[in-house]
Design brief:
By secondary structure, the chain is mainly alpha-helical. It has one domain. The longest helix has 15 residues.
């Protein structure tokens, strides 16, 4: 699947009060957290979207009070990572 570009109105971004230099990074984290919370992406996919390693993402989940999910895709990715 191709990458997707999302357009967000400037006034909405200004109201969010996210420092400009961290804007893209913070928006990706927030999107990853919400998609993961809703069960729409796996842990691995959310980590990739957020640009975080698994332990960093798990810590962020804990900070936000989001229950961690662990599915077959996560298990297979863990096995692949261990093999490397």
């Amino acid at each position: 699947m191709k990458d997707v570009t999302l357009t967000i109105p400037g006034d909405v971004l200004a109201a969010a009060k996210i420092p400009r230099q961290r804007l893209q990074q913070e928006l990706k984290k927030e999107l990853a957290l919400q998609l993961y919370r809703e069960g729409l992406v796996s842990n691995f996919g959310a980590c990739r979207l957020a640009g975080l390693e698994k332990p960093e993402f798990q810590y962020l989940l804990g900070q936000r009070g989001i229950a961690q999910q662990y599915d077959v895709e996560d298990y297979e990715q863990d096995l692949e990572n261990l093999a490397q």
